[in-house]
Amino acid sequence: MSVLNKVESGYLQLMRILVLALATVVLVGVVLLGVNAVSDYNAKPAPVSEAIDIKASAFKLDDEAAEGASDDAAKPHPGAAKLEAALADVINKHGKALLGASFQFDKAEVHELVIGALEDPDQGESFLTSQTAYLDQVLGRADVAKQAKTSEAFYAIVNKVFVDYHMAYATEKERISNEKDEAKLDASGKRSGVYISLYMIAALFSAFIMLVMLIVQIRIERSIRVMSEANARA
């Protein structure tokens, strides 16, 4: 009988150790889920850079004819004159370098283009500034210079640069908008996942309490057995 008591006592001791280890694992799980839930609850959309950088190396030449510039008058706009002058300076710089010192471009020819961009809520001054830099880089390429041997070819390339940049800019704006929407959805999904985490925390914590109660019962059982054995020996 003494051997059986020792074996039973050994099993109770082993069970106590296993339950204690399991309870520890459950408690760690509760803490980790709690930390993750707090992090997800405070989740914010990931930052999305709004910088638009369109490489001049992406510009491709073709045989499109130049479109005629409009001379229609447009109402004055703050900052328009400075932007028109900057754009005209780039065209004049490369026009003189490629076609000769007699080349002359009047900034009035880009007035309508500048005003249209300034009045467009999706473009504005930043669009014109980056477009001017893009045009400068494209016209500075050796392969482009080889194609601009006449004024007609030069203006055709300039107009194509404007068209291509407008399309590339719109594509980049759409990409940025889509990335922002995805970031908002991701943050919203994380916040929604907090409720699932809370349910899991509650379930795991309940299991932890049950395991603790089981440990207490095992200790009581062992204490009773020790007392019984002591009484029997007495």
Please provide a brief summary of the model.
This protein has 234 residues and is an all-alpha fold. The protein is built from six helices and no strands.
Could you explain how this protein is built, in words?
With 234 residues, the chain is an all-alpha fold. The protein has two domains: 2-47 and 193-233; 56-184, no CATH class. It is 74% helix and 0% strand. It has six helices and no strands. It has helices at 2-41, 80-99, 111-119, 125-139, 142-147, 151-233.
Overall number of structural domains: 2
- Shape, principal axes of CA atoms: rod-shaped
The largest β sheet comes out as: none
Average predicted local confidence, pLDDT = 77
Strand content: under 5%
Our count of helices gives 6
Structural class: mainly alpha
Count of beta strands: 0
What is the first-to-last residue Cα distance?
Answer: 17 Å
Descriptors:
single chain, 234 residues, 2 domains, 6 helices
Topology of this structure?
Elements lengths: L1 H40 L38 H20 L11 H9 L5 H15 L2 H6 L3 H83 L1
Helix pairs in contact: 1-6, 2-3, 2-4, 4-6
Organism: Ralstonia flaminis
Protein name: Chemotaxis methyl-accepting receptor HlyB-like 4HB MCP domain-containing protein
Keywords: Membrane, Transmembrane, Transmembrane helix
